[in-house]
Design a protein that fits this description.
Helix content is 36%, strand content 26%. It has 293 residues and is an alpha+beta fold. The protein has a 6-stranded antiparallel β-barrel. The protein has a 6-stranded antiparallel beta barrel with strand order 6-7-8-11-10-9.
Length: 293
C-alpha cells in the first residue's frame, strides 16, 4: 500500500517537472524571464569577478613558480659555464707559464757552449734540513753525478747528487751542504756562497778592501778557492743578487747576503749540463789575486 502511494507521488512529481520544463522552454525569451536572468547575472557579477580574479591569481602564482624554476636552471647553467671557462683559463695560464719557462730554457741552451738535457721537476724536498728536487731524466739521457743544473736566465739551481736510469736527484743551491765560489760582476770580488735553507744565500770570505754594493749580481767564478782545481760549476752562471752587506770593523774579510736568481722552491723545468768536466786539476795562474782560505 505504501509502495503504491510512493510510486504515484513520484509519477506526479515527474509529470510536474516535465510540465515546468516545457513552460520554461516556451517562455524563455519572454520579458519577465529575461529581466530575471539579467538581475541574477547582475547580482552574481561580483562573485564571478572574484572567482575570475582568484583563478588568475592562482594561475599567476603557478606561472611565477615555473619562472623561478626556469631562472634557477638558467643560473645553474651559467654557473657551470663560468666554472668551465675559469678552468679553461687556468689551464691556458698554466700552459702560458710553462711555455715561458721552456722558451727561457731554450734561449739559455742556445747561448751555452755546453751540452744540456731538459728535465721536468717531478718532486721536491723542502724540509727544515734539506732542499732538493727530483727530475724525470737520468743516465739514459746522459746525466751523471756532479752535473750542474740551471734554470731560465742561466741561473744556477744546484748539482746532481744521485742518478738512476730514468731519474736524477739534485741538491739545490740553498741547501746547507752546497758551496760555490761566487764572483761579483761589478766589483769583481770573490767569496764562498753557501746555502741557508729558507734564509738568503751567504757569501763569505770577501776581502774587506773589495767595494761590494747592494744590487750587484753574483755569478759562478769557475774556480775553487785555494785548492787549485777546476770548479764543479762553469764560469758565469748567475747565482743571485746582493741584498745586504756586513763589514765588521777592523776585519780583513766581509760577507754579503744574496737573493737566489732562480725561484728554487717553484722550479718546474731545468737544464742539466752534461759535458762540463768539473773538479779536474788545472794550472793556477802565476799571479793569482785569489786569497788563500
Amino acid at each position: 500500500m505504501l509502495s503504491t502511494t510512493r510510486a504515484r507521488r513520484l509519477g506526479i512529481a515527474y509529470v510536474v517537472l516535465i510540465a515546468l520544463s516545457l513552460l520554461l522552454l516556451a517562455f524563455s525569451n519572454s520579458g519577465p524571464l529575461l529581466e530575471l536572468r539579467r538581475g541574477v547575472g547582475f547580482a552574481l557579477a561580483p562573485i564571478q569577478d572574484g572567482l575570475r580574479g582568484a583563478a588568475q591569481s592562482v594561475n599567476s602564482f603557478f606561472a611565477t613558480i615555473a619562472e623561478i624554476e626556469r631562472l634557477r636552471a638558467a643560473n645553474e647553467e651559467l654557473q657551470r659555464r663560468v666554472q668551465e671557462l675559469e678552468a679553461a683559463n687556468r689551464r691556458l695560464e698554466t700552459v702560458r707559464i710553462q711555455n715561458e719557462q721552456l722558451t727561457a730554457l731554450l734561449e739559455v741552451r742556445s747561448s751555452l757552449e755546453h751540452e744540456t738535457v731538459a728535465a721536468e721537476v717531478i718532486s721536491r724536498v723542502l724540509s727544515q734540513s734539506e732542499r732538493g728536487i727530483s727530475l724525470d731524466r737520468g743516465s739514459d739521457q746522459g746525466i751523471a753525478e756532479g752535473d750542474p743544473v740551471i734554470a731560465g736566465g742561466g741561473a744556477l739551481v744546484g748539482q746532481v747528487v744521485e742518478v738512476g736510469a730514468a731519474f736524477s736527484r739534485v741538491l739545490l743551491l740553498n741547501d746547507t751542504r752546497m758551496t760555490v765560489v761566487g764572483l761579483t760582476e761589478t766589483s769583481r770580488a770573490t767569496g764562498e756562497v753557501r746555502g741557508q735553507l729558507e734564509r738568503p744565500l751567504l757569501m763569505e770570505r770577501i776581502l774587506a778592501t773589495d767595494e761590494v754594493e747592494v744590487g750587484e749580481s753574483v755569478v759562478t767564478a769557475g774556480i775553487d778557492l785555494g785548492q787549485g782545481i777546476r770548479s764543479p760549476f762553469p764560469r758565469g752562471l748567475l747565482i743571485g743578487t746582493v741584498v745586504a752587506i756586513e763589514r765588521p770593523p777592523n776585519q780583513v774579510l766581509q760577507l754579503a747576503l744574496l737573493q737566489p736568481a732562480a725561484a728554487l722552491d717553484r722550479l718546474e723545468y731545468v737544464l742539466v749540463i752534461t759535458d762540463y768536466e768539473g773538479g779536474t786539476p788545472i794550472q793556477p795562474p802565476e799571479a793569482s789575486s785569489i786569497p788563500a782560505p
